[in-house]
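Progress report, Aim 2. The chain analyzed during this reporting quarter is listed below.
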Amino acid sequence: MKDLIEQLDRFAADREWEPFHSPKNLAMALSVEVAELVEHFQWLSQKQSYIEDPGKRAAIRSEIGDVLIYLVMLAGKLGIDPLRAARDKIKINAVKYPADAVRGKAEKYNQA
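Predicted structure tokens for the chain:
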């Protein structure tokens, strides 16, 4: 993760893009990229969403890359370690969604 962060910082610095990379702008860009990712799955059935077409998978792969890039850049601007944040959230979710109470259910934690 550290190498990715450094590579992204260099990429932005080489282009003098830092002034545009405020947390607000990065969060907005992240939202746009997530929407572009979701667009690939719009109107597909559950089964169809397991996309096998190599061209479509390549496009999805590219959007996943964009999402990760903006998420990592946003976390960096705010001094948040995204891996630690994810690990901490998994611990919170383990309490919020005890396996015995929610196994096989899709309801939200307060509806389980």
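Helices lie at 2-14, 23-39, 54-77, 82-96, 99-102. The chain has two domains: 2-80, 81-112. These observations will guide the mutagenesis work planned for the next reporting period.
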